[in-house]
Each structure stands twice: as C-alpha cells, then as structure tokens.
C-alpha cells in the first residue's frame, strides 16, 4: 500500500509531465507554418486545372506541390492565357513573374499576396485596367507594362516606394499619370509610343531619374526646368515634333545621349 509521501511524489511527477506536454504543444503551435501547410490542396488543384486549361506545360508550371511552392521565377509566354486565377497569390516565393503575348485584360486582386515579387512583366497583352492592390507590392523594383491598352494607372501605384524601373511604352496614355510623378526611387521611365504631346513640369520631381524614353510621343516642347534632373543620363526624343530644346538641357552634365 502506497504511503502518503509516495502518493504526493507520484502526483508531482504527473503534473510535471503534463506541464512539459503543454509547453511542447504551445511551442509547436507557435512555429511559423510552411508554405506547404498554408496552401490547401484544393487551391493547388485549381491552379493546375487552370494551367491544363490554358495548355501551360509542366516544364514552366510544375505540377508537383513542393516544386511549385518553391518556384521563384515564372515565365508564361502564352497566347492562350485569358485570365489569372486568384490562387496565383498563393505562390508566395515568386520573385519574378513574366506574362507576355497573352489575352489578359486585367489581374486578380490577389496579386498583392505575392509579397516577395521584385520583377513583374505584363507585356504585349490586352490589359486595360490594373487592380488598386498593385500598390501593396512593397518590394517591387521593376514593372513592365508595354504593349497593352492602358490609359490610366491605379492611384495606389504611388506607394511602390521600391520601384526603380517603369515601362509604359506602347499604351494609350495622353499624359503622364500623376501617380508616376510620386515614385521617389524611380530611375528609369519609358513612355515611348504614347500620344502624350506634352510633358508636365512636375517631371522634375523624379530626382533620381537616369533614363527617360519619350520616343514617338508627339511632343512639341519640353518643360523649362528640365535641368533639375541632375542624374539624367539617357534622354530619347526621337520621332517627335520638337523645334527647340530648353537651354537648361545643356546643363545636364551626366547626359550621354539625346536623340531628336
């Protein structure tokens, strides 16, 4: 028969075991979930079904869960693509997404879930509108939108503080979107083949600008204080209607090329 002292010791051991178990359980729950555990199999099945429907081969869009979730670069040049599924936002490790020669007209709002994306190419498609969630891509450095049907950009684009390169060539812009003029770290801006006609004085607020492509934009004049773009190195003015250039342009000491 157990003594009172032995029973107390036995109860104490049980309490210690329970405490240890609870601590282990809490620690396990606190561990960050991996991509594999976050993304449901149903979401992956929908992604793979989308890829199958659009004849996207497994070589460029893996049909294996582990490889797809680890993918950092997706290159989809495919005229069959008419839409992107919302589940594309589940590919959290993608840093570079290239979509070209597609039938896309817009992007899903879930594009903002690609929080690691640094380079986004949406070229030679039919995009006429972008979701305002684009402004939430905080680490995006390059945005290429050439060859689409855009005439405006979402206001939230101005929040892309890491953006260094923006290509808007071959669209339908009649003026430079005000949001573009608020990008603090922009170094390269292409607006060639848009019917701009004029350039706003506010262009000089892009203090870090190094490359400015304005070829074939129907420009008749340049803003007078353009000399404030002290870091400008390349200025493409070919195929415009300029008859004179502001005197200040010759003060741009870093300017290496200037076509007319």
Description:
- It is a single chain.
- The protein is α/β, with parallel strands linked by helices.
- It has helices at residues 4-30, 35-38, 41-53, 65-70; strands at residues 73-77, 96-100, 119-123, 142-144, 165-167, 188-190, 211-213, 234-236, 257-259.
- The longest helix has 27 residues, at 4-30.
- The N and C termini lie far apart (105 Å).
- The model is unreliable at 21-37 (pLDDT under 50).
Concise structural overview:
This protein has 260 residues and is an alpha/beta fold. The protein has four helices and nine strands.
How would you sum up the major sheet? Answer: 9 strands, parallel
Q: Which architecture of the largest domain per CATH?
A: Alpha-Beta Horseshoe
- SSE series: HHHHEEEEEEEEE
* Total count of domains: 2
What is the spatial order of strands in the main beta sheet? 1-2-3-4-5-6-7-8-9
Number of helices: 4
Structural category: alpha/beta
Q: In angstroms, what is the radius of gyration? A: 27 Å
CATH homologous superfamily grouping of the largest domain = Ribonuclease Inhibitor
Key words describing this protein structure:
19% helix; alpha/beta; 4 helices; 2 domains; Leucine-rich repeat, LRR (right-handed beta-alpha superhelix)
List the helices and strands and how they pair.
Blueprint: H1 4-30, H2 35-38, H3 41-53, H4 65-70, E1 73-77, E2 96-100, E3 119-123, E4 142-144, E5 165-167, E6 188-190, E7 211-213, E8 234-236, E9 257-259
Parallel strand pairs: 1-2, 2-3, 3-4, 4-5, 5-6, 6-7, 7-8, 8-9
């Amino acid at each position: 028969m157990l003594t009172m002292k032995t029973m107390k010791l036995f109860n104490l051991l049980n309490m210690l075991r329970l405490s240890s178990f609870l601590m282990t359980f809490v620690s396990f729950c606190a561990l960050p979930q991996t991509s594999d555990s976050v993304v449901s199999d149903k979401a992956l099945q929908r992604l793979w079904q989308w890829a199958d429907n659009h004849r996207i081969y497994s070589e460029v869009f893996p049909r294996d869960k582990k490889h797809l979730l680890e993918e950092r670069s997706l290159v989809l040049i495919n005229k069959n693509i008419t839409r992107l599924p919302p589940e594309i936002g589940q590919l959290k490790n993608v840093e570079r997404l290239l979509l070209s020669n597609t039938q896309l007209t817009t992007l899903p709002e879930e594009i903002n879930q690609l929080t690691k994306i640094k380079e986004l190419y949406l070229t030679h498609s039919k995009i006429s509108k972008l979701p305002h969630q684009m402004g939430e891509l905080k680490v995006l450095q390059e945005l290429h939108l050439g060859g689409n049907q855009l005439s405006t950009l979402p206001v939230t684009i101005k929040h892309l503080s890491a953006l260094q390169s923006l290509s808007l060539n071959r669209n339908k812009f009649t003026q430079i979107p005000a949001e573009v003029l608020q990008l603090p770290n922009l170094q390269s801006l292409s607006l060639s083949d848009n019917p701009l006609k004029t350039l706003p004085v506010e262009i000089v607020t892009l203090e870090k600008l190094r490359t400015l492509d304005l070829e074939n934009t129907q420009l008749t004049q340049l803003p007078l204080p353009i000399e404030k773009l002290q870091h400008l190195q390349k200025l493409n003015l070919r195929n415009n209607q300029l008859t004179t250039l502001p005197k200040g342009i010759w003060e741009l000491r870093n300017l290496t090329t200037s076509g007319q």
